Amino acid sequence: MSGAGLVVVGSGPAGISAAESYRRNGGEGPVVVLSADTDLPYERPPLSKDFLRGDLDEVADGDELFLHPPEWFVERDVDLRHGKPVTEIDVEAHTVTVDGERIPYGALVLACGAGPSPLPVPGGERALLLRALADARRLRDAAADAKSAVVIGAGFIGCEAAASLAMRGLSVTLVAPDEVPQANRLGVEAGRRLLDLVTATGVRYVAGTSVTSVDESGVRLDDGVTVDCDLVLAATGVTPHSEIASAAGLNVRDSRIVVGADMRTSAADVYAAGDVAFAFNTAAGRHVAVEHWQDAVDHGDVAGAQAAGVTATWHAVPGFWSTIGDTAVKYHAWGDGYDASRVVDHDDGFTVWYEAAGKTVGVLTCNADDDYDLGEGLIADGRPAPVETTRTGT
Ligand SMILES: Cc1cc2nc3c(=O)[nH]c(=O)nc-3n(C[C@H](O)[C@H](O)[C@H](O)COP(=O)(O)OP(=O)(O)OC[C@H]3O[C@@H](n4cnc5c(N)ncnc54)[C@H](O)[C@@H]3O)c2cc1C
Fold first, then answer.
1. Residues 225, 231, 233, CA angle at the centre, nearest 5°?
2. pLDDT digits over 174-203, tens only?
């Protein structure tokens, strides 16, 4: 790396972890983190949980919401510049452009994350979105004045947000095309158990429908029914922020920047990490797409080490925890499909095992931490699940 130092684009977990790892691994060049976000780096997971419920206040110092106090950046000599997006990368000149200014890099880490997909129906712009702290503030303020809400999309963020709004006392309708939440991704039996967790908080689930329009009175469904409500949240998935990488000629597949296990992109001295990356995992033996907090931290850790000249690779089994109502659900998986599964119910929870070609590829648990830990090892080693699975054909 030249003396121009490390430039990181993005101040989410991947970007901050890359800056931290670069320093920890002996990187001595200047470090600049450029972020479009207007806030100091913060935790995203609480935004659909404690923060939305009103159980977590915003205090910049000493509060769990923020990743680090301002001194943390000063102590590590990390120059955090936020509020303006990087608009261009010149891989030949080794520069990025922010607000018309060209900033040189010796190594560049692209940790631009992903943005929520807007609702593609008439009036869709009326629906609130949830990704940044600014979005969460808008949603929380709207919820404070609302009696009813419609949440569109029953992925983990939709389920979490619906439950949190219901726990605030709103009358909440969760609308999704699946018979049960995440039937396509996790299977019908797993989806039933997620549905139980969501409805236990008072949420009403409307299955098998899609939204055709949004207007001032609420949401219109494709069966002609209108659900009146005071606020609408669209939680219908995200699109990785790979536009500047594509424009710079980097190898991008399905909107993600393709990287090796060392997080190197197709351009010299450019790395990508986190939700925007399509990274090779050495344990999986293939590229996998992940959208989880800890995996973004792990990616950033590898990218920062590499930028400092220390060899590192990504090998961890992806995973995350979700909280729906008061219940935690934990998931380890490569996330690219399975052909057989088995649900095992416990007294106060469940485990779902997923296999592909006889190897464990996922485990979803609720109050079954031993299975969660066991599953991680089985997935890493490509061993069979501890129970017999049945073919499900996803
Ligand atoms: C409400 C919510 C709840 C979640 N809950 C969980 C959970 O419980 N568990 C879990 O594992 N995961 C959860 N996630 C997902 C997790 O937060 C993400 O996987 C993680 O934040 C990805 O990290 P990242 O650093 O790759 O991207 P991000 O956190 O999205 O950060 C990307 C950064 O890049 C910046 N940026 C984008 N484009 C540019 C540009 N052109 N120039 C400059 N800066 C740019 C953005 O402003 C942002 O700062 C949740 C996400 C949300 C939104």
1. 85
2. 999 999 999 999 999 999 999 999 999 999
> Which pLDDT does position 60 carry in this prediction?
54
- Residue 365 main-chain phi, psi, to 5 deg: -130, 150
Q: Burial of 199 by CB count in 10 Å (0-12 exposed, 13-18 middle, 19+ buried)?
A: middle
CB 8 within 8 A of CB 86: no
Question: Of 127, 133, 118, which Cα lies nearest the Cα of 151?
Answer: 127
Question: Which pairs from 278-282 meet CB under 8 Å and 24+ separation?
Answer: 278/253, 278/254, 279/314, 280/314, 281/314, 281/315, 281/316, 281/318, 281/334, 282/313, 282/314, 282/315
Q: Which of 167, 101, 100, 165 is nearest to 130 (CA)?
A: 165
Q: Quick: pLDDT tens for 221-243.
A: 999 999 999 999 999 999 999 99
Cα 113 to ligand 1 centre (Å): 5
User: Ligand 1 centre and the CA of 271: distance in Å?
Assistant: 17
Closest CA to 348 of 198, 202, 199, 193: 193
Q: Quick one: average pLDDT of 323-333?
A: 97
Each residue's pLDDT tens digit, 82-114 = 999 999 999 999 999 999 999 999 999 999 999
User: What spacing in Å lies between the alpha carbon of 358 and ligand 1's midpoint?
Assistant: 33
Beta-ladder partners of 101: 98
- 145-171 pLDDT per residue, tens: 999 999 999 999 999 999 999 999 999
Q: Per-residue pLDDT tens for 337-379?
A: 999 999 999 999 999 999 999 999 999 999 999 999 999 999 9
Copy the structure tokens of residue 154: 């029953």
Q: Which atom, in ligand 1's list, is nearest to the CA of 35?
A: 44
Q: What structural domains does the chain harbor?
A: 6-115+238-307 (3.50.50.60), 118-234 (3.50.50.60), 337-391 (no CATH)
322 in ligand 1 pocket by Cβ < 6 Å? yes
Decide: 112 in ligand 1 pocket, CB within 6 A: yes
Beta bridge partners of 253: 256
pLDDT of 2 above 50: no
3-state helix, strand, coil in the chain (%, to 5): 25, 30, 40
